[in-house]
Amino acid sequence: MASKKGGVVAESTIFRRTLVAVTVMRMFLAASDACAQAEPAQPGAGTPPPAVAAEGAASGADRDRQGSAKGRASGAAITLNSVEVTANRRREPAREVPMKVDTLSSDALQKSGATKLSDYLSTQPGVGFDSGGGPGQGTISMRGVTAGKDVGPTVGVYVDDTPLGSNTVSGGGAALALDMGLLDLNHIEILFGPQGTLYGAGAMGGLLKYVTNQPDTESFFGTVGTSFSSTWHGGLNNTTNVVLNVPLKSDVAALRIAAFNNHDGGYVDATGAAAGTRINRSDTTGVRASLLVTPTRKLTFRFTATLQNINSNGQNYVDYGMDGRPAYGALTKLQDAQEPYHQSNQFYTANAEYDFGWARLNAISAYQSLRTSTTLDFTPFYAPILAAGGLDVSTVTPNSSVGTNKVTQELRLTSPGNRTLEWVAGLYYDHEHSTTLQAYRATAGGRSLGDLEKLGYTGSYQEFAAYGDVTYNPTSRIALTAGMRIAHNSQDYRQETSGLLVPTPLSAPGASSDTSKTYMFTASYKLTPKSNVYARVASGYRPGGPNSMAVSAVTGQLIAGNPTYKPDTLWNYEIGYKADLLDNRVSVALSAYDIEWHDIQQYGAVDGVAQLVNAGNARIKGLEASGVVRPTSALSFNASLAAIDAYLTKGAPSVGARAGDRLPNTAKFAASVGASWRFPLGPWSATASAAERFVGERHASFAGATGSPDFILPAYAVTDLQFGVDLRYASLSFFVRNLFNREGLLSANTSYVPLGGNVWASVIQPRTIGVQLSAPF
C-alpha cells in the first residue's frame, strides 16, 4: 500500500494511475508532435543524452565549450547503450558490456533539481537507498542484496578510478556511502551484479561510479550556474556552482577548478522540548581542483583534490507508529534534544598513465580522510528506563564520531582493444585506520551528568590483491572472458567501554584475517553490429572481521561470544540482451539473474552479546528491462522496470528470521517511465519532459525479527516535470519534483520500538518547485 492525502490506496491502484498518467502524457506529446514538422532520426545519431555522455567521457571540455547543447535537448537522466563506460576498466559502448549498466547524465540531473544521492538513485528500479537521516548518511543496495541494516557495504563506490569509503564496521563503511554533489561530474555509472574481480571487496551487489570531467589543454572556458526552489511544508533551497578550465600550456597542461554550495531549507518539524521547524535543513559545500599534464603523447599525469563538507541541523526522520500512521502528524517528529550532523570528506588522487603500445599502464594513488559527528535524541525511550532505575534525566543523547584515513595504491596494465586477445591485470593495496567513538550523555535539570556509557572502537584494515581477466575474440561476433581476483585482508581491532553505567571498564583487542577469491566468466554474441546477447557468471564477497565483546555484570569477566565473523559470499548467474534497433529509433536492454547468497552478515546476538553474525542464506531472482523509443529526433520515450523475488532459503534464528522471509528494503516491483519533447520556441530551443517512478511495498526488517520488528513500507508513485529553454548565452530550466506531493517512505528504523520508541521513517521530499540557470563563458 502507499499513503497519500486523503487516505491509503492499494499498490495496484497506484500502478494503474501511473499507467493512465503516462498514456495521457504520451497522447499529448504525440498530438503536439503531429502538429509540427516531423524530423526523422538519423542513423547513428542516437538519443541526445547518450551522445552528451559519450562525448564528455572523451573530453568534458567539448561539452562545456558547446554549451551542452545536446544535453539541454533532453530532460532524461537515464541513457542506454550508446554511452561509453569504463565498467571493464576500458572505455567502450555500454551496449557491448556483458552486464547491466546504467548511466545518469549529470547535466540532466541538475536540470531536474537533483541535489543528493537519494535524488540520483530515485529513477533506478532495482537500486535501493536506506537513508541514514540526511545528506551523507545512507546505504546503497542493488538487486536486493541487503539484509536491512547492513554490516558492511554491498555496493562499491568509486570516483573515477579511486575507491572511497571504509570496508569496516568501525569506519561506518555501510552507512556512509559517498553522497557527492554534482561537482563538475560528467555522468554517473551504475554497474549491476558482483564487480569483485575488477573492483574488489564491498562490490558484491554492484558498483556506483562518479565520473568527473577532465581538464582541457586547448581552451579557456567555464560555466556558472544557480538554482532556487521551494519545498512544500519546508523552506527555500539554493544551489550555486562554478567551473573554470585554464590551459597552462597548449596541448601539455591544464587546470580545472569547480566549486559548489547547496542549501536545503528542510521540511521536517519537531515537537517536544527541542521543538522547531524545518529541523533537517542542511548546507553542503565542495571544491575540486584537477591538474592534467601530458609531457609526451604517451605519458599523462592527472592530480585531483576534492573537499566536501556537509552540515545538517537535524535528521530527516519522521516518527511513525507500527500501524503505519505518523505519530505526531505529517512530517513531524518528537525531539527533546537537537540532532546536528557534520561530515568532512577529503580525497586526493594521482593517476599516472603511460602507453607502451602493447599495453597501457596506470599507477593510481589515493588518500581519503573522512570525519563525521552525529548527535541523536534517545530521551523518549531511555529516560523512562533510567527513571525506573532511580535516575531521573532530562535528555539522553548518544554523540557519535567516525574518523577514517584510507590509502590505496593500484597498478594496472590494460591491453589495446579490438584484438583477438585482450586482457587486464593489476595489483591493489588498501590500508585503512578507523576510529568510532560513541558517548551516551545525559542531562538533568540543565546540568550534565557525564557519560552514562562510552564506547570506543579502533580498527585497522589492510588488503593486498591481484586481479586480471582475459577476453578471447575468436570471431568478430564472439567474445569469451574469464577473470579472477585473489585478496588477503588482515584486521586489528580494539574495543573500550566505560561510563557511569558500566560496572567494569572494558579494554579488549581483536584480530582477524581471511583470503578470498572472486571469479567472473562471460560469453557474448553479436547478433548484428548493434545487438548482442550475453551470459555472465560472477562471484562476490564481503570481508569478515573481529567482533565486539561485553563484560558480565555478575562476574566482571569478558563474554566472548564469537571473536570473529566470516566473509559472506554470493554467486550471480545472468543472461541479457542489448540492442539499438530501427536506425537507433529504439534502444533495449533486458536481463535476468539468479543470485545465491551464503553466510549473510547480520546484527544478531551470541550468548546474550550483541554481535555480528553469519546467519542465513538467500536466493534472489530478478528481471530487468529498460528501453528508449525515439519516433523522431525531437521526441523520445523511456521506461525501466525491475522485478525482484528475494527471500531467505535458510533461516537465521539469532535475528528472528525464518526460511522464506523476504529480504528487507527490497520491492518486488519498481518502474519508471518518462517522455521528452524538443521543439522550437521563437528563436530558442525548448524541452519539455515528464517522468513517473513507482516503488512497490517493502519490509523494513525480517517478518519474525524481534530486535528490529518488521514494518511495512507502503508503495508509492512520484511524478516529476521539467521545462527548459536554451537561450543564446544561457540555459534556463524549470522543474517540479513530486508534483502531486505524495507521501513516500524511503526507509524505516524500528530498532527502538522494543524500548518504547517510535519507528524512525525517512520520507521522500515533498513537492519542490524550482528554476535552474546555467551560463557558459
From TrEMBL:
Name the record gives this protein: Pesticin receptor
Broad class of where this protein is predominantly found: membrane
Domain spans labelled TonB-dependent receptor plug: 94-206
Pfam families given in the database record: Plug, TonB_dep_Rec_b-barrel
The UniProt record lists the keyword Transport: yes
Localization (cell): Cell outer membrane
Membrane topology recorded in Swiss-Prot or TrEMBL: Multi-pass membrane protein
Organism of provenance: Burkholderia lata (strain ATCC 17760 / DSM 23089 / LMG 22485 / NCIMB 9086 / R18194 / 383)
Key word NADP present: no
Keywords: Cell outer membrane, Ion transport, Iron, Iron transport, Membrane, Receptor, TonB box, Transmembrane, Transmembrane beta strand, Transport
Family label: Belongs to the TonB-dependent receptor family.
GO terms under cellular component: cell outer membrane
GO biological process terms held by the UniProt record: iron ion transport
Gene: fyuA_1
InterPro entries: Beta-barrel_TonB, Beta-barrel_TonB_sf, Plug_dom, TonB-dep_rcpt-like
Residues annotated as domain TonB-dependent receptor-like beta-barrel: 310-739
SUPFAM superfamilies attached to this UniProt entry: Porins
Residue ranges of the region described as Disordered: 39-75
